[in-house]
Each structure stands twice: as C-alpha cells, then as structure tokens.
Records
---
Amino acid sequence: MDEMLQPLIDWLHAQPFQQTFAGTFWIVPTAQTIHILCVAIVMTGALVIALRGMGLVGKEWSLARWQARFHGATVAALWVLLATGIVMTIAEPERELLNIIFRAKMLAVIVTLIVAHFLSRSLRAATSDRPIGAGVRLVAVLVLLSWMGIAAAGRWIAYAG
Ligand code: HEM
C-alpha cells in the first residue's frame, strides 16, 4: 500500500500549492480548527438523534422532525470536513497517507456515511402508520458510536500508526 501511494506523495510534493499549504503558518491550524468545529456539528446531530431514539431527550418532536432539523447542517459539515481534511493531507502527505490509523479512519468514514444515509432515509420515511422500529433506533446509536470512534482515530493519527 505504501509503495502504491508513494507516487501520489511525490507528485503532491512537486506541486506549488502543496508548498504553499505546507509553508504558510496559518493554513494547517485554521483547517484543524474548522475541522474540529465541524466534528462538533456532526456529533450534535448524531447525539440528539441517538438519545431521541432511546426516548431520553426531545420527546416533544418526532425522530423524523429531529432528523429534518439536523440534516442540512450535518451534510454541510461533512463536506467541510472533507475539504479541510484534504487541505491537511496535502500539507503533510506522508503523515496522513502512510499512517494506518488515517487509512482506517477513511474506511470508517465511508462505511459510516453509507449507514447514516440509510438511517436518514428510514427516519424520514417514518409516519404515524409506520413507526420507527427498535432496529433503526439501534442503528442511530451505532452511528453515534462510529462517529466517536472516527473522532478518536483522527486525534490518534498524531501519536500512532
Ligand atoms: C470526510 C473526510 C475526512 C478527512 C479527509 C479527514 C482528514 C483528517 C486529517 C488529515 C486530520 C489530521 C490528522 C493529523 O495529522 O493529526 C484529521 C484530524 C481529525 N479528524 Fe478528520 N477527516 C475527515 C472526517 C472526519 C470526521 C467525519 C470526523 C469526526 C466525526 C473527524 C474527526 C477528526 C478529529 C477529531 C481530528 C483531530 C483534530 C486535531 O487533532 O486537531 N474527521 N482528519
């Protein structure tokens, strides 16, 4: 895998924008700050949906309504996470692309996005005739746990892998 990614790393180092990203002191810290703020947005939506699914908070609104409330902000935050993640990766390609925790995190992001997409569809399709089942509520908890694991992996890239 490392050998496969080395040409991409070499290519990135040859690009002027890579040198700008790596050599401008404020670019990486700013991308990190925005990244972590977007983590908070994704986590807030996932936490409320999971807790509402367990009947612990927000019972005045249906799960479908909570889902609609958080959907736009979560999708926007995920796009910004991708963009800021790409900026950090371009700035330090070896640190990210050759790190096993970074790779595991990317795989987990893809799987969680797919599961979260189907969860979101199930929640939106719910009606009073078709209530949300225990399985869907469990998936909401699993999606929350998965985002938490991904956040932990993001932090661990700096220390392991
Ligand atoms: C969508 C694609 C994503 C990409 C490409 C990406 C990429 C990155 C990169 C390159 C880093 C820097 C790691 C380092 O060098 O120390 C990072 C850090 C981090 N990421 Fe992501 N990430 C993405 C999504 C997410 C998501 C969905 C979450 C959580 C829900 C997340 C949570 C974090 C956290 C908590 C850090 C540590 C920030 C810090 O230490 O300042 N990331 N990410």
---
Amino acid sequence: MSMALSNTTHYSITDEEFSQFKTLLYDESGITLSEHKKTLLVSRLTKRLRKLELKSFTEYYNYVVHGVNGGEEFVQMLDLLSTNKTDFFREPKHFEFLAQTIMPELASQRKIRIWSSACSSGEEPYSIAITVCEAMGAKKWDCKILASDLSTRVLSHAANGIYEKDRVKDLDSARLHRFFLKGKKGDKVKAKKEIAQMVAFKRINLMNDDYPIKSGLDLIFCRNVMIYFDKETQERLVNNFYRYLKPNGYLFIGHSESLQWLDTPFLPVAPTIYQKKDVDEG
Ligand SMILES: C[S@@+](CC[C@H](N)C(=O)[O-])C[C@H]1O[C@@H](n2cnc3c(N)ncnc32)[C@H](O)[C@@H]1O
C-alpha cells in the first residue's frame, strides 16, 4: 500500500544524490551546479517531487532519466533549476550596434542571417526583428532569424508570441503600435506578422558540436547563458560559433560575460560584441 504524501512533505538530499543531479545537468545542458547550490536544488525541486508524489530524490532522478515521457521531465527540471529571465531590448547597446553599425555594413546586399541561440521566451529574437525592420527602411531585406533554446516550454511561449502587457511596458508607443496587436481584454499583446514571419523557432542544445544550421551566419546572439557554463564548455561553444559565422560576422554575448580568458580567434569590437575578422571561411 503506498503512503499518501502531503503537500508539506519535506525532502532531503544525500551527497550522492546531489552529485547525480549535478552530473546529469552538466552532461545534458552544460550548466554547472556548484556544491553550495544543494539547498537551492532542494528548494526548487521540492514542489515538483510533491506533485509527482515521489518519496525521494533518487526516485525523482530515475523519473527524469528513465521516465516514459521521453525527456520532457528533464525540461521541467531545467526550467526549475536555471533561469529563463529575459526582456525586450535587454542590454540595449547591442540593438543600437545592430541598427547603427551592422545594418549599414550589410546594406548593399540587403540580406542578413541571424541566430538567437538561447532565446528563452522570444523577447530577444523579436527585439532583433524589430531593430532590423526599423533599420531597413522602405527597401525590404531578406532577413531570417533562427531562435533556439533547450527548453521546449519557453520555445512554445516564444512561438506563440503572446506577452502580458507588463512585459512591453518599456517599449515606446510607436513600436508597440507598429509591431504588436492588442488582445481583446487589453491585458496581452501579440507579435504582428511583420516580425513573427521573420523568426523560426527550433530546439537546439548548445552542448552539441554540430547544429542543424547552414553556416554563413552574419550574427549570433548568445547572451546570458554562458555564465552557467564552465570555461572549457564556453571555449568549445564559442569556437563552434566561429565556424558558423561568415567572415566579418559578429557574436553578441551578455554584459556580464566575457571572452577574455578563452582561447578563441574572435576580436572585440565593442563591449561584449566580437567579430570574426579578416579570415577565410573555415
Ligand atoms: C537567462 S536566459 C537568456 C535569454 C536571452 N538570451 C537574454 O539574454 O535575455 C538563458 C536561456 O538559456 C537556455 N539554455 C540553458 N542551457 C542551454 C543549452 N545547453 N542549450 C540551449 N539553451 C540553453 C535556458 O533554457 C534559458 O532559456
């Protein structure tokens, strides 16, 4: 007879269990959990264990690894342990650089290929799309933005393109009007076709060394995710990005991240913006 678990059940984790979760998270997502994150892991996952009526972290580990739902639980766990925090026009200098430097550089070809590689719920790729639309003026460009993430939950939100009004409160009213539809109740907005059709969403794990993308990208955004990876993983990732960029292509990283200590041929061109300069395509 199974004992019913109450919604106040308390769980504790052994060192061995913690190390299993640590290894799983690292192997599957590249995210490093330091030893002092033990309490955080217990507090973030407790609700989930209660909901699934599991008795221990070992049971939960087995559920994540061998569960019948084909990796879905890993996504749930990832979302609980990592942050999906993002914003429209987060780190605005990047969008200014795109509008003022990169768009004029590519104006003669009017073609741009962009990858937003840890796009969370989509604010980043839609901000890129808005910037490109505003900067291209009357002449249409051939613009494709690939937006990817490891979490299928955030990706489906991103693909819906529907946001609480509060999420767009800092956009100026001209932008809001041009690029978003207002919901009937007035509490939500939806990305309009003009930007939505520029973005394609796909699940991509940055830990894979080969991505389902043709090389020849002009820009890669990889912002506020590398901070969770160790140096070795960051170096591998950044050098993979290098292969996927065209000569003179750009890499954008988060403002609290840096390539300074990594062995990579990228050259800095502005704070947290790097370029693959003057080299043959490799
Ligand atoms: C803090 S959000 C950053 C969102 C956006 N780039 C920004 O700067 O606002 C980090 C995102 O990285 C994703 N992520 C974590 N590990 C990943 C991996 N191995 N491959 C792809 N995405 C990953 C998470 O799911 C999360 O949505």
---
Amino acid sequence: MGNLLENKKILVMGVANKRSIAWGCANALEEQGATVIYTYQNERMKKSVSRLVTDEERLIECDVAQDESIEQAFAEVKNRFGKLDGIVHAIAFANKEELAGDIQNTSREGYALANNISSYSLLAVAHYGQELLNDPASIVTLTYFGSERAIPNYNVMGVAKAALEANVRYLARDMGKYGVRVNAISAGAVKTLAVTGVKDHSNLLQESQDRTVDGASVTTKEIGGACAFLMSDLSTGVVGDTIYVDKGVHLI
Ligand SMILES: NC(=O)c1ccc[n+]([C@@H]2O[C@H](COP(=O)([O-])OP(=O)(O)OC[C@H]3O[C@@H](n4cnc5c(N)ncnc54)[C@H](O)[C@@H]3O)[C@@H](O)[C@H]2O)c1
C-alpha cells in the first residue's frame, strides 16, 4: 500500500473480468490510495464486474459505440463523484473474422467498427470527460506492438492501435493546455478475453513470452504499476508518449 494517488478519483473503463488489464490497473491505483470508479460495457459485463466490485455506486454503464451512452456515463460520474483526476481507457474490439488471415480481406464495416471502438472512442471519452477533469489530470490508454510491426492475424487491430497512438499525441497537444496529460502503455501480450479473438492467439502469447528478457510473460500487475505511475504526479513530464510495458519484447 502506498499513497501516490491519495485523494485522486480515477475512472477505469474496460474491466471485463479478473484477467482484464483494466483490473490490473484498477488494483494498482487502489493500492496507491485512489478511489476507483468503473464503467462496464453492458448488462452482461456488469454481471462479471459486480463479482469484483461489490460497491454498486462505483459501477456505471458505458458503451463507447454510442455518444449518448458516453455522455450519460459522465453525467452519472459527475452526479455521484464530482470531478475526476484521471481516466484509464482499456477498450478494444474487432470482429473475429477480421483478426485472421490476410488483411486485404478486411471488410469496410469491420475496419470501421475496429477503429471506432478501439481508437475513435478515446477521442469521444476525452470529449465528454473533459469537463470533469481536474487540472492536473491524466488519461492513459492501452496499445500493443502490433501498431508498429505486422503481427500475424492482428491485422485491423494493428491499424486501429496505430491510430490510437496518433490520437494520444494529438490529444496530448490539445488537452495539455488544460492540464490534462495523455499517454499510452504498449503492453506485452497477456491472456485476456480480448486476445482470444485473435486467430492462433496461443502462438501469439507463446512467441511473445519467448521474447521477454526473462522468459516470463508480463503481468497485469506490472502493467498496472506503470499505469499508477502515469496517473501520479511522478510522471508530470511524460506527455503524449507510448511507454512499453512488455518485458523487452519490442527489443528482441
Ligand atoms: N491482452 C493483451 O495482450 C493486450 C496487449 C496490449 C494491449 N491490450 C489492450 O488492452 C486493452 C484491454 O484489453 P484486455 O486485453 O484487458 O481485454 P478485456 O477483454 O479484458 O478488455 C477489453 C474491454 O473492452 C471492452 N469493450 C469492448 N467494446 C466496448 C464497447 N463498445 N463499449 C465499452 N467497452 C467495450 C470490453 O467490455 C472489455 O471490458 C485493449 O485496448 C487491448 O487492445 C491488450
């Protein structure tokens, strides 16, 4: 238990279950004294998230596919908690058929959907959340190395992650003047619900593990640690950056 984030209220978007990277982040934030508020995608997700977070007050629905839902979620946050010191955006989605085979077979709809949920949503969240953000505040999103290298089957999600990282840089520029820092964590591969959508994900996970410096996969706890740092005042000089938390996979 530390006190890096004492008196900070942070919204964590993207917990599906205990394996979620967002859950690793939330735990690390709470361990540093933050009050964490959660959004869940829909009623189905609410069931699994409620098993982890028993305080109903801190659970708010938000489907990032719809502006009204995002607007409503922030109105609810404002009602229940007032201002925020940070937002963790750990959300991505693509249809299974787009995460397999050759990228030239990506459909127009599938491309739009993946980019809408996985990249555009960060802008929408920043837009509707801006009014609630204190000065200073911090926004952190989650990306993956498939934005830079052509990882088998990652395809359209790699494109969405590249756009997400560009969003981070532009948002950092435009929100910086209001005291809001925006950064991304490029996390190593972890077995979560989202990863199982990628064809041959066990190969992806194994190959990633084989490339870490010590042969062990990065954990959601380690990713959470970096998230706590980025939410804290220790990182006030880190702006618009993508920080690798992958145990060296990107080097090797
Ligand atoms: N697992 C990995 O190996 C890995 C590596 C690097 C980055 N990431 C990124 O981390 C983030 C979290 O993913 P995860 O791996 O923890 O998987 P996860 O399945 O636990 O989390 C994904 C979350 O996205 C949410 N989501 C999807 N569509 C949504 C919508 N329309 N509205 C609101 N929420 C929606 C889901 O409900 C879920 O909570 C994603 O951005 C993912 O791309 C994952």
